[in-house]
């Protein structure tokens, strides 16, 4: 962390070092990102973009994590490379993941969707779907810890106290304490 | 149907007016008869009176007897009443041995009142357990226990305390009673209206004329009125002197109930009222006796007065001096005023205004203090104390010296010395008091802070305590609009910088709701040649600082803030190198790092190129998290240099921590830049414009 701070200080104090930092946009990972795969195209259309952003905003936080997380893009990249997918197939895979997260596609039909959209055999599609689910959607079920023991039973309320008035106690409202 | 005299008939209108006239005659018949009688008397032929001796004797003696009877009856009654009054004022309300009926009745009341202690305990217990209930705090043990114990103790002494008060006032009464002696005798001896009657000893022309003219008048009118005045004044006094005794007895008997009421917050008023009435009835007698004593003292010195009037009148010629009887009448009227006035004052000052006793004591104390110069001395001491506390003057310097920066602040604020500051601060204190009253009134629902309240506030002058207090509430609620704000501030920064600063703080609480950020920026900047140049005065400095402090955190102001605004604002806070100035720059940089970077660039004397600006922005954002960056304003995100700085930050982070490709048994790991970008996208996901920009870095 200290090294990072030192480097930051060096860079901003030295104009030439600062100017050497690249400002080139690296879009190479866009095809693997469920968010970025069509974002460039949609961002040119304000209406489409606003609608897309609005839909993301309504998703639960865990689903948003999958959309934006750079780990998710790297996982898709791994899966694609394992199955030797083409660029178009990779894009379609990212789209299937995105649409599933957005709820346009059903999670249970991911395998058939992949087979259809990527034009793959059912076996490969099923393997990719399993990988996707285990890599990208693993967070949700794991978070749900099933309690091993039943919760403790609520304490049993004691029996109601006996409110019967003893015969030697005055039933009058005013108790004359001075005689006690 | 038309009637008229011309055709030989009455008109309807004339018939009505005739009926009305007849009614009026009935109504004013007695006046008409009196006028008629007077006219007849005037028109009767004038002849010298030749009444016989019998008629003369009858008139003279009838009149004389009537006068004699009236005067004798009134005199006898005064005598009887004076004797009764003399006896009544000497009756002890509570004699030394006690009064059986009071003692026993009081015991019954005390025993009854004791039961309420149990009620009080239960109430306290509930209020303590359910302390969260609104209003329960007043009744909980912490609030009531002290009073509970005190009352439990003192309720047993309520009779003794009451008797103590009675005996205390009796001591006062005794002072006058001893001085007066036998009141009935004194009144009888000194009050002699027969002196008003004409006498045979009238020797001079003036006395003779007085005896003829004024003597007769006085006999007929003044002596009767006067004698009845004395009669009623003594009768009233007697009634009150009598009834005070059973009333005081009754109050003594119920005293335990009054004490028990003191335990309950709701009964506190009743307890105080009991004391007020008790004190009032006790104080009646001493106050009345004081005036009676004064009246009798005045009357006892009448011999001197009569002698001096007589000597003046006997040597005087006609029309040179006031007649003897008239002067004497005046003297008796004065005595009557003292006696009647005394009764009225005693009634007013005691039982009819329970707190009157306290009020009179305060008034007399105030007068005495004023006369002795104590008020002046106290005020002088208070002023000196404040001076010492403020670190001013010789003593102020000895006891700690002036607060740091006082002189500098005074110079900055354009304040000449304590003489200028004091009334301004006093005005502030007065305004605070008024505002507190208004808030209480709002809490109790007596006033509502709405547009009607605002209209009323604006009608009041901004420099009156009430007007300022009302405005203070409006400022706090953000109900003052831009024009009103500018108008008020222009006045206050000139006349009372403390007030202007206080109101600016109040406006901050209301978030300057109706004042546009741009106006606020222009106001503290007070650019020469602008509308707001008027704030370029020492008196406005403190307020301008307040305005900038608010603007530095307000999105609406930050949106339009430029380097000129920042330069002025930071300058007001001591410049960019002062701690205060640095803090303010940091605050602005949280939302507008681009403007702060530009300001610093200029301060460093560098040319503003896109790369330089990007580098300076980078300095501001290098340690910012994606969440912090997402909070920066749209105006900042739209700045290309800011976007450039973000890209370079991502690039640098990627260089520091490059991404790791997947290896057998190990998954791919994203680089620092990748993580930064994805974090940024997630942080700005709710803002389409920022998200679009975050995608491109």
UniProtKB/TrEMBL annotation, chain A:
Composition-biased stretches (Polar residues): 16-25
Region annotation (Disordered) ranges: 1-25, 147-180
Protein name: Uncharacterized protein
């Amino acid at each position: 962390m200290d090294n990072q701070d030192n480097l930051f200080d060096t860079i901003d104090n030295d104009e030439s070092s600062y100017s050497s930092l690249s400002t080139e946009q690296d879009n190479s990972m866009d095809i693997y990102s469920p968010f970025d795969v069509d974002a460039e195209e949609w961002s040119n259309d304000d209406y489409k973009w606003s609608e897309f952003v609005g839909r993301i905003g309504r998703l639960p936080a865990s689903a948003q994590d999958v959309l934006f997380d750079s780990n998710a893009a790297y996982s898709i990249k791994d899966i694609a490379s394992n199955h030797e997918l083409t660029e178009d197939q990779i894009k379609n895979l990212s789209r299937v993941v995105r649409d599933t997260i957005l709820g346009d596609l059903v999670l249970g039909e991911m395998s058939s969707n992949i087979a259809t959209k990527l034009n793959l055999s059912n076996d490969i599609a099923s393997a990719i779907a399993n990988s996707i689910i285990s890599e990208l959607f693993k967070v949700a079920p794991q978070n749900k810890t099933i309690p091993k023991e039943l919760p403790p039973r609520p304490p049993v309320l004691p029996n109601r106290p006996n409110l019967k008035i003893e015969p030697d106690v005055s039933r009058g409202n005013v108790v004359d304490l001075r005689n006690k | 149907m038309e009637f008229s005299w011309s055709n030989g008939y009455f008109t309807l209108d004339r018939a009505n007016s005739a009926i009305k006239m007849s009614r009026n005659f009935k109504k004013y018949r007695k006046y008409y008869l009196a006028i008629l009688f007077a006219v007849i008397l005037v028109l009767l032929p004038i002849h010298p009176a030749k009444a016989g001796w019998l008629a003369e004797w009858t008139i003279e003696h009838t009149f004389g007897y009537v006068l004699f009877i009236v005067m004798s009856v009134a005199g006898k009654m005064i005598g009887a009443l004076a004797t009764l009054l003399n006896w009544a004022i000497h009756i002890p309300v509570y004699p030394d041995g006690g009064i059986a009926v009071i003692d026993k009745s009081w015991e019954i009341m005390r025993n009854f009142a004791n039961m309420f202690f149990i009620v009080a305990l239960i109430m306290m217990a509930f209020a303590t357990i359910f302390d969260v209930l609104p209003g329960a705090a007043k009744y909980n043990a912490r609030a009531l226990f002290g009073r509970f114990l005190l009352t439990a103790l003192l309720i047993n002494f309520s009779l003794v305390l009451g008797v103590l008060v009675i005996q205390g006032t009796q001591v006062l009464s005794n002072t006058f009673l001893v001085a007066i002696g036998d009141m009935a005798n004194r009144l009888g001896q000194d009050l002699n209206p027969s002196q008003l009657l004409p006498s045979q000893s009238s020797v001079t022309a003036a006395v003779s004329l007085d005896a003829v003219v004024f003597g007769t008048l006085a006999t007929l009118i003044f002596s009767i009125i006067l004698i009845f005045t004395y009669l009623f004044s003594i009768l009233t006094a007697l009634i009150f002197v009598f009834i005070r005794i059973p009333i005081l007895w009754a109050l003594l008997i119920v005293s335990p109930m009054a004490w028990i009421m003191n335990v309950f917050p709701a009964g506190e008023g009743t307890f105080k009222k009991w004391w007020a009435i008790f004190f009032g009835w006790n104080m009646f007698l001493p106050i009345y006796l004081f005036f009676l004593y004064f009246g009798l003292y005045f009357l006892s010195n009448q011999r001197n007065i009569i002698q001096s009037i007589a000597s003046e009148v006997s040597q005087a010629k006609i029309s040179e001096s006031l007649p003897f009887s008239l002067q004497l009448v005046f003297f008796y009227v004065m005595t009557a005023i003292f006696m009647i006035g005394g009764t009225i004052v005693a009634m007013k000052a005691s039982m009819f205004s329970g707190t009157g006793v306290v009020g009179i004591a305060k008034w007399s104390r105030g007068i005495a203090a004023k006369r002795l110069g104590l008020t002046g001395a106290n005020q002088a001491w208070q002023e000196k104390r404040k001076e010492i506390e403020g670190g001013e003057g010789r003593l102020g310097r000895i006891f700690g010296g002036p607060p740091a920066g006082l002189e500098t602040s005074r110079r900055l604020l354009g304040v000449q010395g304590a003489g200028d500051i004091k009334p301004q601060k006093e005005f502030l204190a007065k305004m605070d008091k008024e505002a507190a009253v208004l808030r209480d009134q709002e809490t109790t629902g007596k006033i509502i802070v709405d547009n009607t309240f605002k209209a009323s506030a604006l009608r009041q002058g901004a420099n009156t305590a009430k007007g300022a207090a009302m405005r203070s509430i409006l400022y706090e609620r953000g109900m003052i609009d831009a024009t009103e704000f500018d108008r008020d501030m222009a006045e206050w920064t000139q006349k009372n910088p403390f007030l202007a600063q206080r109101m600016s703080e109040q406006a901050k609480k209301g978030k300057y709701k109706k004042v546009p950020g741009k106006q606020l920026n222009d106001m503290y900047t007070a650019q020469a040649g602008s509308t707001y140049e008027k704030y370029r005065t020492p008196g406005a400095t403190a307020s301008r600082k307040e305005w900038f402090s608010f603007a530095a955190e307000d999105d609406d102001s930050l949106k339009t803030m430029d380097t000129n605004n920042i330069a002025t604002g930071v300058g007001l806070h001591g410049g960019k190198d002062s701690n205060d100035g640095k803090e303010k720059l940091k605050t602005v940089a949280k939302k507008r790092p681009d403007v702060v970077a530009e300001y610093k660039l200029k301060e460093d004397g560098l040319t503003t190129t896109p790369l330089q600006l990007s580098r300076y922005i980078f300095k501001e954002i290098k340690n910012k998290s994606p969440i912090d960056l997402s909070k920066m304003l749209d105006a900042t995100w739209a700045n290309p240099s800011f976007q450039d700085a973000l890209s370079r930050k991502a690039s640098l982070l990627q260089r520091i921590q490059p991404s790791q490709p997947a290896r057998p048994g190990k998954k791919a790991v994203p680089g620092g830049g990748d993580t930064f970008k994805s974090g940024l996208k997630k942080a700005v996901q709710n803002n389409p414009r920022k998200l679009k920009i975050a995608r491109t870095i």
